[in-house]
């Protein structure tokens, strides 16, 4: 220990939020046991501790593995912060106070004077010796697959109207039963219609159409016929399309567009040629005349039992109907959007029916017959939104919400109705499924009398954003609610404790929302604006300032802008950031400092080199990784923001590393695979346990671990938005809620699911906004294509022919087969494949001269392939782009030491890594290459 410095220190301790590098635990205030407990409390892998028991300063010193953002009043000891490149200081010594001080590892302040500590004078401590394990009992490991969670019933699927209305709707009549028996049809035990023999053979139920098919048996066999729904300008009888795939265990899937059945058009032409069209027209005309007469004679209820839907949407008709509808059993609504055949009729007929339907609605409404009135609006006039508003007007928000779910109304309308019905839980699930908080909130806040519902939804929105790791967005979402600002302040502190760039953006948000607290962050502002500090966090600070300058200005923001602008301008001149001149001008205007304006020259921002997107490159990117093997071998790896990396090490858990490969934090959750949140602040760690996967949620900002249980998964996406996570479980396509589990809540709730795809799911591919599933059925293999943005729904299902030598499920519109890697005539290798019916080939040079064919491996990517050629000592990886508009070409050539190479596609980068701790990321939009060696 060196002697004390004679000069008085003005500020002996740090205040407020600081980047703390260590703690001093004085012996005169804390006994040995208390010091040991605090060492264990703050201890993490990479920390070191010493004890000093001689000299004027006696106590324990703890040095963190990396700087931590802590509030000094809550540290439990004297915070030590780094000033300059070396040395830890117990207070913010000024430059004058540090002049003449001898070099030292630590500088304490006692009695207003600076004292130096050298680590060599202390006794190294091992806190693990203080942990007694002898009294802990050992138990057998729990076998996960003994208690697997089952997919729960759908919590937010719409209910049938008969279930909602109960016995207010009359049962089916005996007249209808006789009519069905006359058609050769019956009812099963559950009360469902069973088709007759001809219908089962042809799929057709209309009498005239059946006659035509008897005469021309080659037409339409094998195609379904729905009998109802009504397209635009047509009429139908309201029977649901049998080809619509069912869903259970989650939110019902979005409806796909129904196309007219082609056999109906052919049959209509045949009917016209044979003269049967006139007979069909006479029967349908007579039916319409009787219907109009029933309305005119005041027999409203009976007329409604025979009435035909009009004014449907354009996606509701399967084509021309050849028969007449039967009498309705009752006036119940359909809980699903129906599709079926339609009767062609002119505008005048439709207008006559529309007028009679409107008069019937007005009479039923005046008589207080709400159920029948809703039936007219929803089933006959197809005014579904008006029907929902009518139910809400009469205090039936719960019924309206159930119908809106079944009818697949827009998500914001469903959420509004569920909130009005007091069902906030299901409203939140729908909002999470479709990411529709903002639009639903606008609906509620725009209506009078719904302030409480709007506030409740706003708080749920904030919690959902926080669950996704979008801490600053969560703060912004709930800030208009004064009662939520305390929670918002905690989220803001969580963001400040995150990575350097997130912390910089959080500082700007703090200055905007809590300007009075910025005085406690003077040290952080000084660190960010120091020209010698890293430029990336300062660039994040500058972008946040330039963005907020449009909407808000205050003294706190002005002070930050004035401090940061000179360093930002210097970084831009040196090419260390990509701020545009307009952004620098906005920061300058935000600072509003006349002295700064006088000092700043008239700048000319040097041009930035154009960004070269990786997959659009004409000249191949040349990259090489020459690093020696790292000290740790990851099973999976992903790149996070701020130059950080997250690695999975199997039973040893997961760990976060910085850009230099140093371990920042370890997570004690077994991890064989990683699922990364879009924000980069949350992740899922999956561990294989025989037939199931054990799932843990990792909060990468607050460093918390939450066990979500185990599931038998066949396939799963390697990314999620922080909440909704797609997977295949039990031959069902499922979207799980993988957010934090609240009090009393069940983990991994089902947001949406669909099953019974007609076979086994044998391949799955999860892209950014698309999901593809290869389903092997009986005699046919089908590709199911789902779109996940802006809302989840089925786009198409197309049969495919799978060749015997394999088939790749790559993107929604193209297929790849005939993939071959073989030696060419020039001593190299030729990679060839067939893409969307076109043959493609490209010659590749091996990493070392070889005679004949060398070993190779192939990794399919969203826009191309990673082809790896293996030599004796090294290997070479080629990124091959495929496309419909041009021939395949090489966009990157990467030399790598001989190892097993793996790849992970992320939204903004492609990550390559091997099992020896080496990794490389390539920016998709910039082609920027970064590499790391895990230490």
SSE topology sketch:
Layout: E1 17-26, H1 32-42, E2 48-52, E3 59-71, E4 78-82, E5 88-89, H2 95-98, E6 106-110, E7 113-117, E8 123-125, H3 161-165, H4 174-182, E9 186-187, E10 193-194, H5 197-202, H6 207-215, H7 262-274, H8 276-296, H9 300-306, E11 317-320, E12 340-342, H10 347-366, H11 370-380, H12 384-393, H13 397-406, H14 411-420, H15 424-434, H16 437-445, H17 451-467, H18 471-478, H19 485-496, H20 500-513, H21 522-528, H22 535-548, H23 555-573, H24 581-591, H25 594-599, E13 621-624, E14 636-639, E15 645-648, E16 654-657, E17 663-667, E18 673-677, E19 682-689, E20 692-699, E21 704-711, E22 713-716, E23 719-720, E24 724-729, E25 732-737, E26 749-754, E27 760-766, E28 770-776, E29 781-787, E30 793-800, E31 808-811, E32 814-823, E33 829-835, E34 838-844, E35 855-860, E36 864-870, E37 874-881, E38 889-897, E39 901-905, E40 909-914, E41 918-923, E42 929-933
Parallel strand pairs: 5-6, 11-12, 13-38, 18-23
Antiparallel strand pairs: 1-3, 1-4, 2-3, 2-8, 4-5, 6-7, 9-10, 14-15, 15-16, 16-17, 18-19, 19-20, 20-21, 22-24, 24-25, 25-26, 27-28, 28-29, 29-30, 31-32, 32-33, 33-34, 35-36, 36-37, 37-38, 39-40, 40-41, 41-42
Helix pairs in contact: 8-9, 10-11, 11-12, 12-13, 13-14, 14-15, 14-16, 15-17, 16-17, 17-18, 18-19, 19-20, 20-22, 22-23, 22-24, 23-24
Protein name: BpX6 domain-containing protein
InterPro entries: bpX6
Domain MoxR-vWA-beta-propeller ternary system: 9-182
């Amino acid at each position: 220990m060196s002697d004390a410095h004679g000069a008085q220190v003005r500020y002996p301790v740090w205040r407020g939020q600081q980047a703390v590098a260590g703690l001093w635990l004085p012996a005169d205030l804390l006994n040995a046991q208390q010091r040991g407990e605090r060492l264990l409390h703050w201890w993490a892998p990479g920390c070191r501790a010493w004890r000093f028991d001689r000299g004027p300063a006696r106590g324990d010193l703890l040095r963190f593995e990396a700087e931590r953002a802590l509030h000094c009043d809550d540290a439990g000891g004297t915070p030590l912060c780094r000033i300059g490149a070396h040395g830890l200081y117990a207070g913010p010594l000024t430059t004058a106070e540090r002049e003449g001080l001898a070099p030292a590892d630590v500088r304490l302040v006692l009695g207003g004077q600076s004292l130096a500590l050298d680590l060599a004078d202390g006794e190294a401590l091992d806190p693990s010796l203080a942990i007694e394990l002898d009294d802990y009992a050992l138990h057998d490991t729990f076998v996960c697959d003994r208690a697997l969670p089952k997919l729960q019933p759908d919590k937010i699927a719409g209910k049938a109207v008969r279930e909602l209305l109960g016995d207010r709707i009359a049962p089916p009549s005996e007249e209808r039963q006789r009519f069905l028996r006359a058609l050769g049809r019956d009812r099963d035990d559950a009360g469902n219609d069973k088709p007759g023999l001809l219908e089962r053979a042809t799929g057709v139920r209309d009498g005239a159409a059946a006659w035509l098919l008897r005469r021309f048996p080659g037409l339409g066999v094998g195609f379904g016929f729905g009998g109802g729904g009504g397209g635009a300008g047509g009429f139908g009888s309201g029977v649901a399309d049998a080809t619509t795939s069912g869903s259970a265990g989650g939110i019902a899937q979005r409806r796909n567009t129904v196309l007219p059945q082609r056999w109906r058009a052919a049959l209509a032409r045949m009917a016209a040629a044979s003269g049967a069209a006139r007979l069909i027209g006479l029967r349908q005309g007579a039916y319409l005349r009787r219907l109009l007469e029933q309305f005119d004679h005041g027999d409203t209820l009976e007329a409604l039992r025979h009435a035909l839907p009009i004014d449907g949407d354009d996606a509701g008709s399967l084509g021309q109907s050849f028969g007449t509808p039967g009498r309705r059993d009752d006036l119940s609504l359909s809980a699903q959007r129906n599709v079926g055949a339609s009767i062609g009729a002119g505008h005048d007929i439709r207008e006559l029916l529309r007028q009679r339907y409107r008069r019937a609605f007005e009479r039923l409404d005046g008589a207080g017959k709400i159920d029948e009135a809703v039936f007219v609006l929803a089933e006959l006039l197809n005014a579904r939104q008006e029907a929902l508003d009518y139910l809400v007007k009469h205090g039936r928000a719960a019924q309206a919400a159930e119908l809106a779910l079944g009818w697949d109304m827009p998500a914001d309308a469903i959420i509004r109705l569920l909130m009005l019905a007091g069902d906030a839980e299901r409203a939140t699930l729908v909002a999470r499924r479709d990411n529709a908080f903002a639009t639903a909130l606008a609906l509620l806040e725009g209506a009078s009398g719904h302030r409480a519902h709007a506030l409740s939804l706003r708080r749920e929105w904030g919690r959902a954003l926080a669950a996704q790791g979008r801490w600053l967005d969560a703060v912004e979402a709930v800030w208009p609610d004064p009662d939520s600002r305390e929670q918002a302040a905690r989220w803001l502190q969580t963001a400040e404790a995150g990575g350097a760039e997130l912390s910089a953006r959080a500082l700007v948000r703090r200055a905007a929302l809590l300007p009075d607290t910025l005085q406690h962050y003077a040290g952080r502002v000084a660190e960010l604006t120091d020209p010698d500090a890293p430029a990336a966090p300062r660039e994040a600070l500058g972008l946040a300032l330039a963005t907020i300058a449009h909407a808000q200005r205050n003294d706190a923001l002005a002070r930050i802008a004035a401090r940061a602008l000179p360093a930002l301008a210097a970084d831009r001149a040196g090419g260390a950031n990509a701020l545009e001149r307009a952004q620098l001008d906005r920061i300058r205007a935000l600072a509003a400092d006349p002295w700064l304006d006088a000092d700043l020259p008239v700048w000319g921002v040097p041009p930035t080199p154009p960004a070269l997107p990786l997959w659009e490159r004409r000249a191949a990117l040349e990259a090489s990784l020459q690093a020696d093997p790292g000290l740790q071998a990851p099973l999976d790896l992903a790149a996070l923001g701020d130059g950080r990396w997250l690695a999975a090490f199997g039973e040893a858990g997961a760990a976060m590393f910085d850009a230099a490969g140093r371990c920042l934090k370890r997570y004690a959750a077994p991890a064989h695979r990683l699922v990364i949140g879009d924000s980069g602040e949350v992740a899922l760690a999956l561990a294989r346990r025989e037939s199931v996967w054990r799932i843990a949620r990792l909060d990468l900002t607050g460093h918390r671990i939450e066990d979500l249980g185990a599931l038998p998964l066949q396939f799963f996406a390697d990314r999620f938005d922080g909440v909704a996570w797609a997977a295949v479980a039990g031959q069902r396509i499922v979207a799980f809620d993988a957010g934090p589990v609240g009090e009393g809540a069940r983990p991994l709730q089902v947001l949406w699911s669909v099953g019974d795809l007609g076979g086994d799911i044998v391949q799955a591919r999860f892209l950014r906004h698309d999901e593809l599933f290869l389903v092997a059925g009986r005699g046919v293999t089908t590709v199911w294509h789902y779109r996940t943005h802006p809302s989840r729904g089925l786009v198409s299902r197309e049969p495919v022919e799978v060749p015997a030598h394999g088939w790749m499920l790559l993107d929604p519109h193209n297929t790849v087969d005939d993939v071959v890697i073989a030696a060419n005539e020039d001593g190299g290798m030729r990679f060839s494949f067939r893409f969307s019916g076109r043959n493609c080939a490209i010659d590749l040079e091996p990493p070392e001269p070889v005679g004949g064919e060398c070993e190779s491996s192939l990794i399919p990517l969203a826009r191309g392939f990673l082809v790896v050629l293996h030599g004796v000592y090294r290997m070479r990886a080629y990124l091959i782009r495929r496309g419909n508009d041009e021939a395949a070409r090489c966009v990157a050539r990467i030399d790598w030491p001989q190892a097993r190479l793996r790849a992970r596609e992320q939204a903004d980068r492609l990550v390559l890594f091997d099992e020896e701790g080496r990794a490389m990321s390539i920016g998709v939009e910039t082609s920027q290459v970064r590499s790391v060696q895990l230490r």
